[in-house]
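I am writing to request your help with a piece of structural work I have in hand. Here, with my thanks, is the record as I have it:
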Amino acid sequence: MHASTQILFALLICSTSAFHLPLARHGAFLSQSSPLVLTRHPGGVLAAKKSKPNPTPDEDKQKKAVLDTVLNSIERNYGRGSIMRLGDNDSMEVDSISTGALTLDVALGGGLPRGRVVEIYGPESSGKTTLALHVAAASQKTGGVAAFIDAEHALDPAYAERLGVNVQDLLVSQPDSGEMALDIVDQLVRSAAVDVIIIDSVAALVPRAELEGDMSDAQIGLQARLMSKAMRKITGSLSKSNCCVIFLNQLRSKVGVIYGSPEVTSGGNALKFYSSVRLDTRRKEVLPDNVGINVKVKVVKNKIAAPFKVIFFDILFGTGIDSLGCMLDAAADFDIVVRKGSWYSYNDTNFAQGKVRACAVLEENPEMREEIEQQVRDALLNLKNGDPVPSSVVAVDDIVKEEAGGEAGGVGEAAGVETVVTSE
């Protein structure tokens, strides 16, 4: 054996002996019934001691009494509800607002959540503003107050009224700068008197310094810093006001991107992190006779329900989302409404021939429409793993491959199997 190898072997034996001897000298031996923890004595050697035993019932009561005292003190100082146990509070359930499309509501877990930030982004003419106005109309129908921050100065009141928005009660602001717009949003949120606030759009929230500067001035990161500060201020009071803040956003292309998506949303990354729901809208095709467009909405992020769902529905020019057609297709998938050939029947009674006529009948009979809609919602929400999956809720892997490199949500957000909810 080589001399250096012998020296290393001797040092190894000495170090092993130094480790074991103190354990034996102190009478500490490992056993299953006596869990041991290695500690370092002041002399620099390792020894073993018993781990701390489980607390006794008296100690548990003492800790609980101390915790209750601290919780009561926090509530006295900061108000009731400042800290709570999730199991003892029923109010932690998140209320939602309908989007106007039944299948999208189900994909979101009931609709857009109150007290949260929502981002809807996509290319031009993909239904972003239409979807947001449907949310405002749904909120007003339940007695809520809606506000529209028109940073783009492009709101069409006549179109909003055709979508069901009560324009007489709609709060509208056309701010001069991004700071003014976000200050208005902050004050409306803190008032706790507004249910929905729509900001159209993030790209139009121009900082005051950029407006007052010259065209040749380089303004780097001003809008991103403005949005980051606004998110920190707004989100703190959102949950208390139970207001849903919807940011509409545009897409930009990153230069020189080889791998991954070249698309990015404007306004920096703060909005992505603070948003509880992010929806990516895309126009798929124009409907026959140019009566509307078919839109695909992808749930890129959802903190309320399962994300990565894709929904298809029609938007008709002049009237908005085809909510009746969306509901009728879902009802036929669950056999709530039976479709035989071109005839539609409900409760063993034929009520219309053709989808257009069936939608007209449902429009004329609100009680029948509400009854079918409630049955569809119950059927969709009660789907369990292993149940037969209808054609309106289909899990497919092809969409993952199709969207892997072409969505603004990023490759990481598009990973995993998506669920498609379609009204076709």
Summary: The chain has a mean pLDDT of 80. Residues 3-25 form the longest helix (23 residues). The longest strand covers residues 292-302. The chain has 13 helices and 20 strands.
